Model the fold of this input.
Amino acid sequence: MNRIRVRMATVLAVLMVVAGLSAPAPAAADPAPGDRSTVLQHLLSGGPSVGRAAEIALLGSDADVAAFLAEGYQRAAEQDDRARAQALATTGPAMRTAAERALAGSAADVRTFVHSGWQTPWVSDERVRLTQALAVGGTATRAAARKALNGTPAEISDFLAVGRHDARRVDDRLLGAQMLSGGSLNSGANLHAAAEQALAGSPEELREFLATGQFVARARDQELASVTRLSDLAKEAGATAALETQSAKEASERALRAAEMAKQAAARAAAETAAARDDALAASAAAGRAAD
Done:
């Protein structure tokens, strides 16, 4: 904010000089008001280095203005050109190669690059960015990317700047809908509720849900499923224990009945043995009497 105020003060001071509202007119050898107007134009339209140098010149003497116009502007402009080339180098591999080649050359090479030479590597990098969007995008994004790939460089840039964001919103809604109940990506009631809320919100809210929120909902569904499974296992264990208790009771009753039946069979066998003994004794007695 302070720097903006200083520049505004500088502009006002120069306007006063140009309008002839300041001190007496300079000597003939001094820079004319038009020179200060030129420096002012550089201040307003130049890059950071040019702007700083122009500001210093305007706040200085007429000799400072003359020195800026003679040499200072050119040096500052070259610094700004190099800064632009370095910034362009970060936008893609082809641009980086071209920028490094220009920066290794003369000031004229750098200036040519930042004014027009950047365009060819930019188109090359745009195509790379387009193929990357084609590789990772959803259905709508891939369709729009293929269409742009067959178009002009301007159409490719338009897709990357605007079209892919519109297509991604369509893909986001399709993906969110698949997380509703019955969808192929649904994990349970929590995810359904969260997806439904996100789909009713803004594109930004839906994107945040897809990036992070869905995983929180999935974790809750998993936790609920684990608790439900444990409850089911407990019920199954209880039912199994009850069944085993009933089976043991029935086995015990069968054993008691078998023991009773064995006891009765033993009693019958004993009775039959006694009866047979009695029959044998009777037969022996009868035989004795017959012999007499």
About this structure: DSSP finds eleven helices and no strands in the chain. The two ends are 156 Å apart (CA to CA). The first helix runs from residue 2 to 18. The CA atoms of residues 286 and 292 lie 10 Å apart.
